[in-house]
Amino acid sequence: MDIVDVTQKKLQENLNWYEKNFDDEFEIENLEELDVIEDERLDVNSNVQPNVVHHEEAMVSEGLVYPPDIWFQLSKYIAPEDVWRFACLCHDACAVTNTVAFWRSLYLRHRDPKIKLPQSLSKELIEGTYGVRYITICALYLMYEPLRRKTVINSPIGEGTVSPYSLKNQICKYIWSQGNPGAEFTYYLMFEEHVSKKNKPLQFDKDIYASNYSYQTILKVFCRSYQNLPQAEIMGLQLADVFFNVSGDMRNHKLRLVFQSERTRWRGNPSLTTTVLDPVVWVRIIHWWHPQFRNCIECIK
Fold first, then answer.
1. Burial degree of 288 (CB within 10 A; 0-12, 13-18, 19+)
2. pLDDT tens digit string along 149-197?
3. Of 237, 245, 231, 244, nearest to 272 (Cα)?
4. Residue 57 contacts by C-beta under 8 Å, 6 or more apart in sequence?
5. Is residue 196 within 8 Å of residue 221, measured between CB atoms?
6. Please, what is the end-to-end C-alpha distance for the chain in angstroms?
7. Integer Cα distance of 53 and 259 in angstroms
8. How far apart are CA 111 and CA 123, in angstroms?
9. CA distances (Å), origin 123, targets 40, 116, 120, 136, 250
10. Please, are residues 65 and 57 in contact by the beta-carbon 8 Å criterion?
11. CA-based, 20 to 30 A from 213: which of 10, 40, 243, 292?
């Protein structure tokens, strides 16, 4: 073996195993050595400190925090039906939706001078703070076409928020009726949804959310004749169940409401009060933001 071959052999031995050129003349005497080297490399990678890995993952999950002013500028381009999506983006976006400037800008942006609003929803009232959110939402259901269309199109009974079943677990606050003896009667049952105090935005100005009718819904029932509705026994009770089906004459509907005391809700055998309205021509669910809600309240007077 000459000096050149010896020199090449020494250089080949000094290279890493994955850098060597394995040809027919080069023989691997011990393949187990390569496995040992690979196992050592894996052990080195697996011995990385866990806190370093968690720190890198935490930095990636934090993301970017934008200034609150950016969210306020973006709120000027949010459509009324996308307010809840915008508020769910982050804490600062939610904080923007709880300001007077946000609701006032939403009102003025979609205000149509051709549409005559009632005095209770006039432009002068949003200059203040009290009830600005309630005024803006109610006005948008008169001015903003996508929301106004929802109040005009009647959905089938029993679907979505127009269903009597959506009133379950709500409290019956007040009952009144309208009609003449011997003719059709319309009954109004006002329900109020129980909202936990933890869900209310107490960290913001309470006057923004001020309203006498928030979380209230009216069940409007049109009957063929007068029905004996025990108002004194029902008011203050919780609606436990609703049954809306075909009447016995197969031409109208029958509405059966089952009430229970809120205090006995979690007991084994709560006392139930059942009320049946039959025959019923049609049923309407009117939420606090609906334009007809105020008209129903006027019937009390």
1. buried
2. 888 766 556 555 677 888 999 999 999 988 877 778 899 999 998 776 5
3. 237
4. none
5. no
6. 119
7. 57
8. 9
9. 76, 11, 9, 10, 49
10. no
11. 243
Report the C-alpha gap between 44 and 47 in whole angstroms: 5
Peptide bond into 201 cis (omega under 30): no
52 Cβ contact list (under 8 Å, min separation 6):
none
Query: Could you tell me how far CA 272 lies from the centroid of its own chain?
Result: 31
Token pair of 228 as six digits: 């004996």
With 0-12 / 13-18 / 19 or more C-beta atoms within 10 angstroms meaning exposed / middle / buried, residue 121 is buried
Strand, helix or coil at 143? helix
How far apart CA 172 and CA 230 sit, in angstroms, is: 12
Tell me the pLDDT of the chain averaged across its residues: 78
The phi and psi torsions of 43 (rounded to 5 degrees) equal -65, -35
Residues ≥6 apart with Cβ < 8 Å to 281: 184, 222, 223, 224, 252, 253
d(C-alpha 276, C-alpha 272), whole Å: 13
Q: Which two tokens stand for residue 265?
A: 């809700």
| pLDDT score of 265 more than 70 | no
Q: CA 155, 161, 162, 165: dihedral to nearest 10 degrees?
A: 130
What is the residue whose two structure tokens read 């080069």?
26
Alpha-carbon span 225 to 210, nearest angstrom:
38
